Predict the structure of Proline--tRNA ligase.
Amino acid sequence: MALHMSSLFLRTLREDPADAEVPSHRLLVRAGYVRRVSPGVYTWLPLGLRVLRNVEKIVREEMDAIGAQELLFPALLPKEPFEATGRWTEYGDNIFRLQDRKGADHLLGPTHEEMFTLTVKDLYSSYKDLPLSIYQIQTKYRDEARPRAGVLRGREFVMKDSYSFDVDAAGLDKSYQLHREAYVRIFDRLGFHYVIVEAMAGAMGGSKSEEFLATAEVGEDTYVHCTSCGYAANVEAVRVPAPSPVGWEDVPAAHAEDTPDTPTIDTLVTHLNERFPRDDRPWEAGDTLKNVVVTLVNPDGTREPLAIGVPGDREVDEKRLGAQVEPAEVEAFTEADFAANPALVKGYIGPGALGLEGSSGIRYLLDPRIAEGTRWVTGADVAGQHVIDLVAGRDFSADGTIEAAEVRPGDPCPTCDHTLSAARGIEMGHVFQLGTKYAEALDLKVLDQNGKLVTVVMGSYGVGVSRAVACVVEGNHDESGIIWPRELAPADVHVVAAGKDEALFVKAEEIARELEVQGLSVLVDDRKGVSPGVKFKDSELIGIPTILVIGRGLADGKVEIKDRRSGERREVAVDDAVAALTAEVTAEVERS
RNA sequence: CGGGGUGUGGCGCAGCUUGGUAGCGCAUUGCGUUUGGGACGCAAGGGCCGCAGGUUCAAAUCCUGUCACCCCGACCA
């Protein structure tokens, strides 16, 4: 049965809601797809629910096509499995927690690794049962510190998550590849531009991980890409190519110099150029070695300082650092921390004080650019003094390297000789080789061919289903409203009765019925007493890709087919309308 | 958690500086006119001005406190 505007539970808004900033949020509310209930929590109204279901349908079809099987876990979970993996504490404030009448702790699932793992453990115990891929489309809950942009980042959201289970790494590779290909098909069908970028595999267990990012200005993720070789990575995962070691034969011995009042890189560089000018070129920030100290807070609450050495022209990128030290959290080093570590001279920290072997005993990690043989100016661990011609490998060493320095457009590509550009994206999907992290924590093992117990190797794969709805709108709208891709639209054809003549309404109903016989879904604007202008505006706002206007032309046996995206209109004979529309819609579906 | 902002009919906003009968547009209801690009007229319903306390003859307006929401940042398998 066709949807009718006269009775549809819908109210379009002429004005933008005050709390909506990004286009998808504005339009989804204005066009009557969603309503906010509380911060980050939204109601799906009839039109919106149709779109959401369409996304789910695409996801199901492609998951089923690779042999994944759908199941459904509860959203309400007991805490015990999350205690077993440590995530009851690790997830911190992001978990919605609640207690039942007996005082037992529960949570609303933010993700379901534990449940999938335990359920496989419950039912399977042989290599013969594997490989296995199972998935669910489930409402997830995360108490985000700051939900934003409507359903783009909610506290309650719909996600497809699947997990693969294999006996070995080779099997995981195969399952991962299958999912990756399925994701390519899903995102192609969803109809927005996206990139596949290398992502952080995580501090534990994971080995390979890629994100599917919808390219969008409003995106929260920054990624870099190389226009030459196709390399693309989330900034968190960018690998800095380490320069080859260089000889230090010509470098004079390191010498400490007085550099009073130079606690910052800027003041230091100015001072160097005034007092220690070089013949070949002036000193620059990039000649200095900046040592930053932070405090790591482990999930169990223990604290440990960490020093990071980066070239002076770069900041430590907190996101990159955070990803490297996960699950520990990073806090700034406070005055109290300095007081507790007298070996550190604020503003003049140098490698002499750092490192497990250094006077402070603080673990010291270097940016890969600080390769063996490179020479630096850096703090002398004495107030008002810096060391010049300090050579890495000759005069100091560290406890390892860390990828924590900021990444900038123009940096060299790690895989070819070109440079990187930066752009923003929205994380829409994530494929992730988990490895044995959860299987080990929850003791998921099967017997192999030799009767030996082996730990199952897992992969995890997510698609943001409700987020996809917003994301599609971000990529498919204009001034007037939404422009749905065919497969997602709440209906195939929007039939508009534009006028007051009763014959228009009769014909609209007749055509709607015939379209439905042809298998198309239809929204009919059968509102009486509503002027054509209002109906046109609403049809553009709502964004069904094909609009059939039955109006003044009907007297001459003509109706008008309008393409929402291009704005093109063409007149067809009223008797040909159904055939023309059917041909248009089916042709478009096959093309996609 | 830090910074900025906003709370006034369903929605968008004005009024607050300078205290004195709560207003506008949209939406809604009725009647009439109108019907190809967000129509017009007349009439109507709907608001403890976020909440609490204070000052005052009198508070949407001034003071104190508090709560909520939005934006930027921090945070975010």
Notes: Residues 96 and 108 of chain A are 6 Å apart (CA to CA). DSSP finds 14 helices and 32 strands in chain A. The radius of gyration of chain A is 30 Å. The longest helix of chain A spans residues 169-190.
